[in-house]
TrEMBL record:
Keywords: Amino-acid biosynthesis, Isomerase, Methionine biosynthesis. The keyword RNA-binding does not apply. Substrate binds at R54, G55, A56, R97, Q202, N253, K254. It comes from the Archaea. It catalyses: 5-(methylsulfanyl)-alpha-D-ribose 1-phosphate = 5-(methylsulfanyl)-D-ribulose 1-phosphate. Gene3D superfamilies: translation initiation factor eif-2b, domain 1 (1.20.120.420), Translation initiation factor eif-2b, domain 2 (3.40.50.10470). SUPFAM superfamilies: NagB/RpiA/CoA transferase-like. This is Putative methylthioribose-1-phosphate isomerase. It holds the Pfam family IF-2B. The record marks C163 as: Transition state stabilizer.
């Protein structure tokens, strides 16, 4: 099951023969499993912006290939003109989503390969090679993260997760759901409660889809039911992903994560964040991070059908921030980080 999922249903794939990026169109799930083939950086940017591909690690790797496609498609005759085109593609891809740090990390990593090459052909080769390396790296990082996190789960645990931090949010294994997969691979019986995750329903559409695909016991619960489920003793642990982790332990993740963390604290339930080191932002302060505001229609419509009166105001932030005081531990590929986070994060980055 693990091998089938990891190499069969992969979110981000590179077709070297066709020189194209192949993405699962997550807007169509769970009813249809469809793929999008991107042959230009503009197509990749559109997929990121429209959330055809989403989840911080998957966005990062997709953007890396977007920049590589810009290099492959460039008709520039000299390095200066080439870098001008690549810089324009970099800016377009960078502007697609403002909160997930993996996007910026991945683009900078590819840009450094472009800058360091002494010819256009060498730049193309180095940029594509680095993007392919990042795809393979993501699978490996998530496996190691999952192995570390699986030690925190006991046989029979009932785990709540919010949004989708699974294979569909990464290249193909998952962060929060990677922990659950790894625990299952070790023979532990784990059942999952996935919140719907309004307004785009990533929990109901994506998390439930991939866990059911993997034969993992999953139930869906409305976002508004979390307090009652905890009060009834139906949840043993909470595991979520992260779009950005600051050096002091503040975590930016899908809107609703903060209130789940508050409720977990109130009910003495461990609250874990699973995040690769590529999701850490060691420079920004909380007030520096832009919280993305998304489209009006995501809130007032479900499946294109209007559910709210016309002319109404809407708040639709895509993310919130959970303070470190509410987080039991942060699971990374280099181990489990515990409070005080300023120290444990500094230690893992050798600061």
């Amino acid at each position: 099951m693990h091998m089938e999922y990891r190499y069969g249903l992969m979110t981000v794939q590179w077709d070297d023969k066709d020189k194209s990026l192949v993405l699962i169109d997550q807007r169509r799930l769970p009813n249809r499993l469809e793929y999008i083939r991107c042959k230009s950086h503009e197509q990749v940017a559109d997929c990121i912006k429209s959330m055809a591909v989403r989840g911080a690690p998957a966005i990062g790797v997709a953007a890396a290939f977007g920049l590589a496609l810009a290099a492959i498609n460039s008709k520039a005759k000299d390095k200066e003109s080439f870098m001008h085109e690549i810089d324009a593609a970099f800016k377009l891809l960078r502007a697609t989503r403002p909160t997930a740090i993996n996007l910026f990390w991945a683009l900078e990593r590819i840009m450094s390969k472009a800058r360091g090459a002494d010819s256009i052909d060498k730049a193309r080769e180095a940029m594509l090679s680095e993007a392919v390396a990042m795809l393979k790296e993501d699978l490996d990082v998530n496996r190691r993260l999952g192995d570390h996190g699986s030690l925190l789960l006991n046989d029979g645990d009932r785990v709540l997760t919010h949004c989708n931090a699974g294979a569909l949010a990464t290249v193909g294994y998952g962060t929060a759901l990677g922990v659950i997969r790894a625990a299952k691979e070790k023979g532990k019986r784990i059942s999952v409660i996935a919140t719907e995750t309004r307004p785009v329903m990533q929990g109901a559409r994506l998390t439930a889809f991939e866990l059911k695909h993997d034969g993992i016991d999953v139930s869906i619960a409305p976002d508004t039911s979390v307090a009652l489920l905890m009060a009834r003793g139906m949840i043993d642990k909470v595991i979520v992903g992260a779009d950005r982790v600051l050096r002091d332990g503040h975590v930016f993740n899908k809107i609703g994560t903060y209130q789940v963390a508050i409720l977990a604290k109130e009910h003495n339930i461990p609250f874990y964040v699973a995040a690769p080191l590529s999701s850490f932002d060691l420079k920004s302060k909380v007030e520096d991070v832009i919280i993305e505001e998304r489209a009006y229609d995501e809130v007032v419509k479900i499946a294109r059908r209007r559910i709210a009166p016309k002319g109404i105001r809407v708040f639709n932030p895509a993310f919130d921030v959970t303070p470190p005081t509410l987080i039991t531990a942060i699971i990374t590929e280099k181990g489990v980080l515990e409070p005080p986070y300023e120290q444990s994060i500094a230690s893992v980055f050798n600061l």
